[in-house]
Please model this.
Amino acid sequence: VITNYHVIQRALDMYGKILSNAKIEVFLPDDMDTPYKAEVVGTDSRTDLAVLKIDKNNLPVAKMGNSDKVKVGELAIAIGNPGGLEYMGSVTAGIISGLNRTIVSESGDKFTLIQTDAAINPGNSGGALLNSKGEVIGVNSIKIVAKEFEGLGFAIPINIVKDIVNDLMEYNYVKGRPFFGISSDPSYDQRAAEYFGTPPGILVAQVIPFTGAYKAGIQRGDIITKFDGKSVKTVAELNEQKNKHKPGDTVKVEIYRDGETLTVDVTLTEEK
Model:
């Protein structure tokens, strides 16, 4: 079962395992009185996708389309559960409004998405976006929004979904992604830098143990000013440079610490 990561996120610990005091259940449209306990096969917060497994045979399977062939102006049909089980299987329709729309999440990850004016409400997350043939061309996500606008719904293209899901099913994570190993303090921006008289950059809030950043000696409170020779002021800018590399690559990272500028070599690990 494919859904959005944010739909099940609160039931998981930091390692993607179901919390001891939580459970994830799947309800099927033709058997709404029977909740099926779900196992987590794999999750990917960067694309907001998750794969679940339930103990049930002979389930109908949605036919996958080809999102690379979708055109602006085509019919778009969104299916989901706005408001929960009460309105389970609700259908809304519209058109494809745009392709290859890029939105940056709060965590600095870039999403390349299908835009539609079909109504996508809370509860539609993880549901299917279909074409006129009933083929799945995307996975709806209410978490990915363009603020200050109405009538803009977004879906993760199914061709991207297929690649992510195949890796999650085979490896439980997406292979081949470089991992740096820090989380940042988003309150540190240009104004904060000017106020404290420190250089603009990314303020390290946490260093994840045994990652490349950890082994290179990067510490909480450091300000990352350059990554691989490029100035970085946001996590999005850092990720853009990081994603040009692969696991095992070593990059130079410039940091500001206690009035000094230091350069350290960071060997990127694999994100799991």
